[in-house]
Amino acid sequence: MDILNDLNEQQKDAVVNGDGSCLVLAGAGSGKTRVITYRTAYLLSQGINPENILIMTFTNKAAREMAERIQKLTGMDKYLPYAGTFHHIAYKILKKYAEVIGYKNNFSVLDQEDGLSLFKICIKENIPTSEDKKFPSPRVVREIWSYTRNSLLPLEEVLEIKGERWIPLQSDIERVIRGYENKKKESNSMDFDDLLTNFLQLLCYDDVRLKFAKQFQYILVDEYQDTNRLQAKIVKKLSSYHNNILAVGDDAQSIYSFRAADIQNILGFEKDFSGAKIFKLETNYRSSQEILSLANAVIDNNHRQYKKQLKTIFHTDIKPEFKVALDPKAEAKFIFDKIKARLDAGKSPKEIAVLFRAATHSQSLEVELVRHGIEYDYRGGVRFFERAHIKDVLSYLKILNNISDEAAWRRVLLKEDGIGPVGVEKILLAIRQIEKNNIQEIGFQILSGKAQIGWQNFLRVWSSISPEPILPIAELIKKILNAGYGEYLENEYIDSRDRVEDIKQLMSFAENSDNLSDFLAEVTLSENYRTANAPDANRQNKERIVLSTVHQAKGLEWETVFIINMSAGGFPNERAMREVEGLEEERRLFYVAITRAKKELILSYPADSGFAQGGRGGWGETVSGPSMFLEEIDADLLSTPPSFLASLADLDDANEDIHYISENRKFKPGSFLREVEDL
DNA sequence: TTCCAGACGTTTTTT
DNA sequence: ACGTCTGGAA
Fold first, then answer.
1. Contact yes or no for A328/A605 (Cβ under 8 A)
2. Distance between CA atoms of residues A442 and A413, nearest Å
3. How many CA atoms lie within 13 Å of A415's alpha carbon, on the beta-carbon side?
4. Cβ(A630)–Cβ(A350) under 8 Å?
5. Residues of A designated catalytic
6. Could you write out the three-class secondary structure of A496-543?
7. Which of A124, A214, A526, A660 has its CA 20 to 30 A from that of A559?
8. What digits encode the pLDDT tens for the residues A442-452?
């Protein structure tokens, strides 16, 4: 098999002999993703039908990249219909079998924000406000409920782990949750967790389970260390006929415990799948020895870890570098200078990435990059499809697709003048009773004069799209824009032009899709992030540097990697440290970040971070100091400054300036700040 | 019932 | 600094 020539013996072994149940335990950069792609290519070349292969990944990006590589390897234009995230696969199958579990197949998919507003309402409805005992915020309730479902633990236990102080309120919380579940069911909607839960429920019907278990002759799961118990159960059901599953993972890279990822899935794999084979990949093909030594040293501080020392095959003599900057702006300047130098030297932008713990940490750098016209891809934070105006437009479409989608109705109606929460509920009540398409009729009797105007306003948009829902989706969006939403944007926002541009981008995205229902789900399940500062014309095929959260960077690699804001409270994140086993997970996260780098690794942090408690804080300019992770690092693993002590000396010098900055901030900034303050 | 201004607390990570 | 919540006016 000549496509396997690129692989080393261990990898080849897993690819060729990965029949039955196997677990590929693989360190960072050891090519575990390759095992999946090459195995799939190998299976296809053996004549296996793509329909019979199931590949589950964590991110859409991972799925996409795999599909591309497989295509390249096989040279065949074979589309893999069942390669995607757990949620995608679940959606695809639930769509066909929705009726079996009591949904209609045009069900809506709610994102987190939708879920949050639903919880808000449910708390209002179910918890008397007069009571003096505090009730957890909608956010907290949602989190607890989501964790409960993904972990398959009883609520009681989850409260013990995640919210001890709410234990006395358990029955109240349960009441709110029941309300939430009812509301979703009534509006024919599923949240992210429903996709998995309902999928599992569906697979509990033996005939359905058998159909898919028979169909999926080969199952491949990526990043198995990040699966939770719910997902593991799904995998178990799906593999129950052929028992032919290949899971790859690395316990050192488990970073999703907040989503109930359970390391036990890997540790207990041999028990779950009796007779499972274990393959180990311990050679790292990605990073230089210099980078790997740092990674090994970092992860060595974790106790709950399988000890493994990754070996590498190449040296660069470039040790990871470390820099203290005065403040985030100075740090941004430093990073920019470094990037610029590399680009000028002819390095490809796509070999450079800047990573950070939390999406908010990138602001200063973004300002700096935009100012110098450096284009970048951004991964993390608010997704393109979660921006308010995009969600507004999508809400009209959601109603069109699923008239019961109350979350969408609320969103659309609440921004009409004169319609508030009470008005919305009245309208919703009327809609529940009335037969489809008679929407026009309602309103006159139930709404006040002021609300009537808002309702009429809505009807104008509605009547422009509702008679012909078969139009291409882009056409529908255009009509929404022309019938009033465009005007609303102009009235409401100074940057309405940008927003209209976004909506046009949504239209071009919609051109690939001919099914409204699928389009809407796709958009909600997609992790599509924004591309900053890129003129539309060359949006595609343009090579850009990447700014990304560490979570989003998992599985990816670059020659040069920066990790910024390595400050106390920033990384490890202060909130995360309060979780059970929080510190160890943060350290694994740091390990993931380090091992993204192939040749160059540059760590930095701002002495005066302006970050209090790891978030961007306005109160008090804090001098937060270095991350404890930096202090754990042996000085001789880093290049400049030659030792950590030297950088502490830098910091002392910096401190004098910092006082100066803090005291004078309201007046003319110091010379080194002037240029950035201009913005 | 809605709307607005001022008070409040709050942002980790993702599907 | 920012978004969300609350209380009182319209």
1. no
2. 14
3. 18
4. no
5. 32-33, 222-223, 253, 596
6. HHHHHHHHHHHHHHHCCCCCHHHHHHHHHHCCCCCEECCCHHHCCCCC
7. A526
8. 666 677 777 88
Q: Which of residues 130-149 of A touch strand C (CB under 7 A)?
A: 138
In this complex, the nucleotide whose C1' atom is nearest to the CA atom of residue A138 is C4
| A427 close to A442: Cβ distance less than 8 angstroms | yes
Phi-psi category of residue A87: left, alpha or beta, with phi > 0 → left and psi -120 to 50 → alpha: alpha
- Checking if the pLDDT of A613 tops 50, the result is no
Give the span between the Cα atoms of A547 and A556, in whole angstroms.
12
| β A277-281/A22-26 pair status | parallel
Residue type, A569: G
**Cis previous bond, A328, omega within 30:** no
* Alpha-carbon span A452 to A185, nearest angstrom: 29
Using pLDDT thresholds of 50, 70 and 90, give the confidence band for residue A678.
very low
Q: What is the pLDDT of residues A24-64, one digit of tens each?
A: 988 888 888 889 999 999 999 888 999 999 999 988 888 88
Q: Assess whether A162 (CB) lies less than 7 A from strand C.
A: no
Instruction: Give this prediction's pTM.
Output: 0.88
Q: Is the CB of A444 under 7 A from strand C?
A: no
